[in-house]
Specification:
Layout (H helix, E strand, L loop, with lengths): L7 H4 L4 H17 L5 H19 L6 H22 L1 H4 L8
Amino acid sequence: MLYTYEDSFLIKKVDDVELQSLEDKAIQEADKLGITDELYKEQFVKAKVYTQIAIRHIEADGMKEKYDAYKVQLDETYKKAKTNSPSNISSMSIARG
């Protein structure tokens, strides 16, 4: 695995093979979305993996709350990556006053 996952509550719900598969899919999605900044990419991938695990186990105690929290992080990271990515800075319009 490329990243370290700290949320043991979620991670213990899947085995290493499934975790690797989820991470690979999340990395592919980040690439398709054009997330190139490594920090934002890591945050996006982790949040995506966590949300996918939570969706699979949504009935478990506390899982809905975990899903909601990581979904917010996923959305915020994507927004930040799209506005703060070096590849986007040169194409951003400049307000003239």
